[in-house]
Amino acid sequence: MSYCAIVGINWGDEGKGRMVDLLTEDYDIVVRYQGGGNAGHTVINEYGKFALHLLPSGIFRPGVVNVLGNGVALDPENLWLEIEDIVSKGVPITPENLKISDRASILLPWHRDLDALEEARLKDKKYGSTKQGIAPFYSDKYQKKTIMAGELLYPEYLENHLKDLMEWKNLTLTGVYGAQAYTLEQLKAWIAEFGGKIKPFICDTGAFLRKAQAGDKSILFEAQLGALRDLDYGIYPYTTSSNSIAAYAPVGSGLPSVVLDEVIGVVKAYSTCVGEGPFTCEWLGPDADALREAGFEYGAKTGRPRRVGPLDLVATRYGVQVQGATGIALTKLDVLSYMEKIPVCTQYLMHGMITDEFPFPAALPQAEPVVKYLDGWNCDISGVRTWEDLPKAAQNYVEFIEQRIGCPITYVSVGPERDAYIKR
Ligand code: GDP
């Protein structure tokens, strides 16, 4: 029996999906505890290459039960498309290996509309939303103005609730944004189509998890995005609208009393960031293009080119601290093989003063990176599977990071395939 959370330490896209896919071998249950389908985990395995958006990454492992916890933004329409896509590639998805919390709130069609309408209103001050409706969804959840998945099992209750919500939401849609109002028929048709599809998967996942806990099952808790996108601890307002940190795993999963044994933080060997907001180590121009191409840094959901730069140890150390990471999986080390010298941001320069501390978001745009260069290894390491076989310069790079972030690096990933890693 063990309880482990696997989380992003930086801005997301650290390669969590690949690590969860690898680690699921040792777990009975994988739970997604927050976020929606607005980001993507890329997983490559015997079935092919997949961009998972909402489904837990354990979905490919026979015998693993996957849970969408109460903390997620449950978009039945996109979830169904994702399920259909994966099933069409030969992966079985049934109520036996996928369970959706009856307490997960449902992302309704107007959440996507409102996301797009608000980004359009903001024009050049936009937050860089993926327009999947996540921010309007979470604000409505906390206003108690959404429906819970379990309500699909109570049609009469649901219809009355939906009608009340629609009357309230139409005031904003028409009055604030001059958009089209929803009709109850439209909503009922949407619920009948997509709610109907996911209904067989909905159950009391809290009860299921408590039983699993009593039966000594091992549970892996999977997060979306990274510490710097956490609503409370990230680079607000350029964060997501939920808590992506490990501390939220118990609440968002349906096992509020669970104490995690392990928190594996995923760090990429260099920095990437999608969307708006301060990004201290950002490279522009040919260096950025070369790194982006080497790491194929394009959004899994949107295809947007990611912003790239050297590893930011100030942000990473902060991420390790807020996540309470007990071990680190360092991914994409192989991508740096083309560099003669490898730049690393060790500290920030703020108003002429050197600091190790990650600043308050409003002060972050003033931070300048202090960069140190480490030796590159200049050879292909994608076939290396043991620490001893890793070139000395690559070992030094890993050890340098480990020492600066104050957390052991227990996995080093050298390729996207399931077996392309080194366990230390
Ligand atoms: P996630 O959201 O944190 O899972 O991150 P992404 O889905 O953006 O994953 C990062 C990308 O890098 C995916 O395309 C992975 O297949 C790929 N990837 C993960 N680990 C490695 C690695 O060690 N080396 C290389 N070359 N690619 C990797």
Description:
By secondary structure, the chain is α/β, with parallel strands linked by helices. Helix content is 31%, strand content 21%. A hairpin with a 2-residue loop joins strand 3 and strand 4. Helix 2 runs parallel beside helix 6 and helix 3 crosses helix 4. The two termini are 22 Å apart. 48% of the residues are buried. The site of guanosine-5'-diphosphate (GDP) has 22 residues, from helix 1 and strand 3.
Keywords:
424 residues; alpha/beta; four-stranded mixed β-sheet; 11 helices; globular; binds guanosine-5'-diphosphate
What is the topology?
Layout: E1 3-8, H1 16-23, E2 29-32, E3 41-45, E4 48-52, E5 65-68, E6 73-74, H2 76-88, E7 98-101, E8 105-106, H3 109-122, H4 134-142, H5 155-176, H6 184-198, E9 202-203, H7 205-214, E10 219-226, H8 249-253, E11 262-268, E12 271-273, H9 286-295, E13 307-309, E14 311-312, H10 313-323, E15 327-331, E16 341-350, E17 353-355, E18 368-375, H11 392-405, E19 409-413, E20 421-423
Helix pairs in contact: 2-6, 3-4
The structure holds guanosine-5'-diphosphate (GDP).
What is the structure about, briefly put?
By secondary structure, the chain is of the alpha/beta class.
Major β-sheet strand ordering: 9-7-5-2-10-1-11-15-19-20
Extract low-pLDDT stretches: none
Structural class: alpha/beta
Strand content: 15-25%
How much helical structure, as a percent, in the residues? Answer: 25-40%
End-to-end separation in angstroms reads 22 Å
Shape: globular
- How many strands appear in the DSSP assignment? 20
Mean pLDDT: 94
Q: Biggest sheet: strands, sense, closure?
A: 10 strands, mixed
Measured on Cα atoms, how large is the radius of gyration? 22 Å
Distinct small-molecule ligands in the complex? guanosine-5'-diphosphate
The total count of helices amounts to: 11
